[in-house]
Write a structure and sequence with these properties.
The complex is a heterodimer of chains A (72) and B (271).
Chain A: H1 7-39, H2 44-71
Helix pairs in contact in A: 1-2
Chain B: H1 2-8, E1 34-36, E2 39-41, H2 43-62, H3 72-93, H4 97-116, H5 132-153, H6 156-162, H7 172-218, H8 220-223, H9 229-267
Helix pairs in contact in B: 1-7, 2-3, 2-4, 3-4, 3-9, 4-9, 5-7, 5-9, 6-7, 7-9
Classes of the chains: A mainly alpha (72), B mainly alpha (271).
Chain lengths: 72, 271
């Protein structure tokens, strides 16, 4: 088996590794947002919007991993 | 849809699992249906035009006869518009957000309807899962927020990116370099890829579940009662349908929200 035949498998592992960090990060973002909403329910709207933003920025690395998975 | 049809033609009697055709098929361009002046019109192009017509018709008929006491349809249209105008544009950008509302509304509705085609029966194909479309939408966002920054700060916009005043002098080259790549390259890239990746993943998941359900159920003569596991795939596929609905609405919202945030950061760089 030469390297080209297991290319797909390597890309899969790479994507899995790229997803670890953002997975933890999104968990922290969402957890903190829930905490904020529970402490101050009247600020839930702001917390929710900011949570989506935080998730969107945290996701970036996983998305780059997704792209590399296809072009690898 | 086309993948399902392609798999239906292969012979399920040989083995329990009938291998679906290559996943790369999802990323290849279909044969053109017809051509207009050298431009091949594929199924995706027809669907994109359908999205445009649907969105225009929704807004046109929703706001055609404006009355103080709105009809149900007008109330729905107004709810969507006020969601984008108050919930996204003025909430994120500020008072100037009203100027960007038409663009944000078009982007929101276009992405929403284009992605909803994923769970529409007989279409089953999200047009936003073709990379060209999210890439083009992200390019428009890029042009809008760079233009907004240049109009507001002149060429100092780029200077503010590569030489940020709020950072200690020693760190400015490093932060400037990171900001330069992050704002001008990573931003549009992730914006496009986020939409694309979510839709492709959902489409693949639905296709695989429904195709395996179909293959199992249709091989009832060969593997007997065991083909009933196809029912489980169908049930899971239906569950994923509901999940995908949530994902689609959320992705349309996030795409619009991030576009607004990028414009806001160009208009008010100090924040």
């Amino acid at each position: 088996m030469d390297l080209t035949t297991i290319k797909g498998a390597i890309a899969l592992i790479g994507y899995g590794l790229a997803a670890i960090g953002p997975g933890i990060g999104i968990g922290i973002v969402a957890g903190s947002a829930i905490e904020a909403m529970a402490r101050q329910p009247e600020a839930a709207g702001i917390a929710r919007t900011t949570m989506f933003l935080g998730i969107a920025f945290t996701e970036a690395l996983a998305l780059i991993g997704f792209v590399l998975f296809f072009i690898a | 849809m086309e993948l399902i049809l392609a798999t239906a033609e292969c012979d399920p009697s040989v083995d329990i699992i009938c291998a679906p055709t290559n996943v790369k098929e999802l990323f290849e361009f279909r044969k053109a249906i017809f051509e207009i002046g050298g431009f091949p019109i594929t199924r995706s192009v027809v669907l994109i035009l359908l999205v445009a017509i649907l969105v225009s018709a929704f807004l046109f008929f929703g706001l055609r006869k404006k009355s103080v006491v709105p009809s149900k349809f007008q109330a729905m249209t107004e709810a969507v518009i006020s969601f984008v105008k108050d919930g996204i544009a003025t909430d994120i950008i500020g008072p100037e957000g009203a100027r960007y509302t038409p663009w944000l509304l078009s982007v929101f509705l276009f992405v929403l309807v284009g992605s909803l085609f994923e769970v529409t029966p007989f279409i089953n194909f999200p047009v936003t899962s073709r990379m060209a479309l999210p890439a083009f939408l992200a390019l428009i966002t890029w042009v809008v927020f760079v233009t907004a920054g240049i109009k507001r700060q002149g060429l100092g916009y780029f200077l503010g990116i590569v030489w940020p005043k709020t950072v200690p002098v020693a760190l400015r080259p490093l932060v400037g370099l990171i900001e330069f790549f992050s704002i001008l390259f990573i931003r549009p890239l992730t914006l496009a890829v986020r939409l694309f990746a979510n839709l492709v993943a959902g489409h693949l998941m639905l296709t695989l579940l429904l195709v395996s359900g179909w293959v199992f159920l249709s091989s009832i003569g060969d593997i007997g009662a065991r083909s009933a596991i196809g029912l489980a795939w169908y049930a899971m596929g239906l569950g994923i349908f509901m999940f995908e609905l949530v994902v689609i609405v959320l992705q349309a919202y996030i795409f619009t929200l991030l576009s607004a945030v990028y414009v806001q950061s160009s208009l008010y760089p100090e924040h």
